[in-house]
Amino acid sequence: MQSASCGSITVTDRASIELTGILSVDSFDEFTITLNVSSGKLMIEGEKLKIGVLDLEKGKVSAGGRINAVYYTDGSPAESGFLTRLFGRRA
Burial, 21: exposed, middle or buried (Cβ in 10 Å; 0-12, 13-18, 19+)? Predict the structure, then answer.
């Protein structure tokens, strides 16, 4: 199993992303990938996203597509729903 690690994120030309330190994958579709890391949830947003490599034993994930945003979130369900992605977060 993966030891506690901060992990790393490498984005190349907004077309691919490689991550380490991943604990699990919560959800994914062609617009959003939601991952669990030691410091919370990590969101990748984009278009035509596809997971290429998923190795949870080593804590590695790579994906391709158009990467628009990568950010950490507290993971509440209201932040990750379809309407939130469509209309944005309420203040």
Answer: buried
Contact between residue 79 and residue 90 where contact means Cβ atoms under 8 Å apart: no
Rg (CA), the chain: 13
CA 36 vs. chain centroid, Å, equals 8
What pLDDT does residue 7 have? 87
Contacts of residue 88, defined as CB under 8 A and 6 or more positions apart, other chains included, come to none
Mean pLDDT across the chain, nearest whole number?
A: 85
Is the per-residue pLDDT at 44 higher than 80? yes
Q: Residue 43 — φ and ψ, nearest 5°?
A: -110, 135
Among residues 23, 36, 24, the alpha carbon closest in space to that of 73 is found at: 36
**Sign of CA pseudo-dihedral 72, 12, 10, 61:** positive
Which amino acid is it at 3? S
- Please answer whether residues 38 and 6 qualify as being in contact, where contact means their C-beta atoms are separated by less than 8 angstroms: yes
